[in-house]
Amino acid sequence: MDQHGKAEPAGLEVVVSTMASDSHTWNLVFLQLLLEELGHRVTNLGACVPDGLLVAECRRIEPDLIVLSSVNGHGFHDGLRVIDALRACPELTRTTTVIGGKLGISGSGAPARQRALMAAGFDGVFEEGRPVREFPSFVGSLAAGAGAGAAGAVPAGAVAPVAGSGVLL
Hints:
Strand content: 5-15%
Order of helices and strands: EHEHEHEHEH
Distance between the termini: 44 Å
Helix content: 25-40%
Oligomer: single chain
Mean pLDDT: 83
Structural class: alpha/beta
């Protein structure tokens, strides 16, 4: 049977990673399995990923979505540093990038912390305490859109704090 044209694979190309100070892996395994179940292709970079390696791998992979996860409570400070490195790379300036998990040690849902992360360049903030269903909904809106990483592809209200299950991103 002849096939004409080139069929595009379904789903998004996604990179999941922690940051240099975070040695937790189960959160990454959960995210990988969740995203794969949703039909996306996932590269899991693992724990304690140095900023330079994260940027290099994202440049190589050219993902539609970068998901940074933190469990150790240093996600806010690490995230500010990492988003600067990602956005400084011309190939990654428009790549949809989100952060989630335990982003601080002073509790979850700090609106000022979420606003600061968004202002720094993140497209979504999923802090612990939010229902886990919000993340797949966000990712689904990217997959259904005209293209991930495009301006305006991020759904409104991506950082609205909601009491919930306590599942970490």
